[in-house]
Amino acid sequence: MTVPRRPSALCPAARVCAGVLALLCLSVTVRTGLAERSVALAFGGLIALGELTRRPAAEVRETAPLGAAGALSYALLGDDAGQPTHHGVAQTVTVVLAATLLGSVPHVARGEGTTRDHLARRVLTVAFAAACSQPLFNEGALAGRGGPAYALLLLALLALTTLCDSLLTAASAHARTGWPFGRLLREEVRAMAGITSAVCATGAVMALAVAVVGLWALPVFSVPLLLAQLSHRRYAAVRATYRQTIASLARATEIAGYTPAGHARRVAALAVAVGRDLRLSGPELTVLEYAALMHDIGQLSLVDPVPAGATACLPAAEQRRIALLGGAVVRRTGAGCEVALVVERQADPCAEQPLAARIVRAVNAYEEKARDAGPGGAWTALGELRPAPAGDYAPEVLDALARVLSRQEPAGRCGQDRRRRARGAV
Known about the structure:
Structural class: mainly alpha
Distance between the termini: 31 Å
């Protein structure tokens, strides 16, 4: 249910390709030996350090920015203090693989999850960058080249590598979820504007600096990214604590007996999925999630709880009163005016609501109808919402909800029949 970007799981085909590529590169390196061992050890140590300081995968897409920058820099390295290097593609992948595994040992030992997808993505992206650059260096095509043109070439190679990684991630997410590939790719490209751009820039600068002054450039250019990573970790910890506070406040209605257990959490999870389907941005999804978690907070003002917390069955005037009271409570929590506005407007006529309020209203009504409906109740509940009076629920939100439900339910003859009836209800 979290809104921040996170690494998408790779599809089995990508994992197999990464594994085969890693074994092939390892065998070639063992047969030919390491070239420029001091350079390999320096970059391997930098990558291992980046892996040791990596963040949990739930926080950001790039969990180890220092390790990623070091790996990309080694893949693009053509000179060491003016002397040509000859490590090649196979050695690049082998050194990155060994260093990543070494730096991941403490994380695996603490039970923080495996590194399978993380390692596969690292192998594939580094192999792509090295395959684009190392043959040019080894053949002498870039010998004696320098200046702005050389720097722009490195940046172009990094941009292509990042785009390749985005294509891989989007394709894996499409194969796993069935979401439109174009939409997933756009989200991945938008995510490049954050830490990914800093990683690419640092990787290029490292490669350029080592080519001129040698390995002493590595610690100098690693410190800024390491400090930025530490600052982002603290910021992520503050955000996580804040979200936990919002979630705990949302449970007040459940503890008081006004709403069923888990209702706010289910509405928030489904609302975020619908918002993603409707192409809401990251900040908009955050507002939507917080508003969905606290959409029933106004029920605390009621003397007698509504049966099962089903506010969708109340008169419109009573729904608006509860929504306004809820918005007033949200404003006092410091959750932000945008969140409070969504909570306040969830009972307004559909045409007057912001999109987030339309989503919360429709998903809340759906969850109230579906939770006790039994087998096939999801599509029955959705079918009951469609013939509602005009202005109650936004058609585009109900269509998005149907798409989300169809992705969550395994395909089958009965399921397909229920989905057709739900979509066709007027």
